[in-house]
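U., I forgot to send this yesterday:
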Amino acid sequence: MENNLLFHVVHIDSPLGKIELIADAENITSILFIDTENNSHQSLLPTNTTTDELIKCSTQLQEYFEGKRTTFDIQLKMMGTDFQKQVWQKLTEIAFGTTKTYSEQTVALGDIKAIRAVAAANGKNKISIIIPCHRVIGKDGSLTGYAGDLWRKKWLLNHEQKLTNTIAKGKLF
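Result:
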């Protein structure tokens, strides 16, 4: 059986540590902090092979960290179950600089009883930052459930909140 899947990998530095970007020929398939347990590809794939989409993603992430970008224009390929993809798609609708609770996310998906399944799907998100699972918080406002470590979730939310406040005051550029 022939394997037509070829993946390309680039590691980038960020204020949150090294990030591994993985892409197929046309789409970003994974953005993970490489010092977390969720990085299952690191030892399996050669690094620093690139595609146009990896270069574009790397640039846009750098702009995000520099406070110059609030949205992304990246071709993504979400790899998961249909339910997971539905959950991740809803995550992309959470506005920059805002948060939603797991309960609110569940309501948006139309099944209030699925809160554990929604939380589990959030935890399986392999496209960090661009699919913003860091914007989902506990009902009491607590920071819970981030595969990239809670300190990173806090940093990302603070970063976005500061930038949102700057934009509201007309001081972005």
